[in-house]
Predict the 3D structure of the following.
Amino acid sequence: MKRLITVMTLLLAMPVQAEVQTKTVEYEHDGEKLTGHLYWDDAKKGNGPGVMVIHAWWGLNDYAKTRARMLAEAGYVAFAADMYGTGKVTDKPAQAKEWMLEVTADVDGWQERAALGLEQLKKSGLVDPQRMAAIGYCFGGGTILQMAYSGTEAKAVVGYHASLPAAPESVKGKIGTKVMMFHGHGDKFVAPEVVSNFQNKLEEADADWEMVIFGGDVRHSFTNPDAAKSGIENLKYDADADAASWQRTLELFKQTL
């Protein structure tokens, strides 16, 4: 009996093994049906910090979901949001561009759809609404900036190899979230003058912002190991920039969330 009790005591004392759970979340915006994916560690108790992930212009593909899973493994509740519509995923640049332009043509609608994604994270019942953030890639990086410009509830927004829409004059003194961007000096999709204007407008808006520019030949999609599969010369993975940007992101979330 003593041995049985000892074994049971040891089992109870062992740490609970983390296991990431996932759930499909269906929602709708402006008549478009959207399908996102929620990820969380079921070993975590109570409402914790949450992070929304916004996909690149290809749509809500496996890469965006993988990043959401990585966040869950790091202790966050993560929601991979859908900005295009259920099933709208492609590896064709022309189709990706078409879907992206459909969303970005209406800035108010673009901002609303992003905010709705964050709302799904908050409604999960797993998140402390005072501790939310958002990250985005390429088109998604531009999307999290639109969130910042529209008064998001997120405490921080982080973009990687992002489109860089400049802050409008109307948001001067109104950007209440921390803005962090990671950019490659060799990214030919974004002209140097666009980068400079983006920085200047954030400064004029009195925003709390930080931008890391990786020098040399760090190009667009530097965080994606499969970047070269697209056949687009400007898309190239960079392991060092990927690791550095992810580590800095996690450090930021520890500070802000």
Remarks:
- The mean pLDDT is 93.
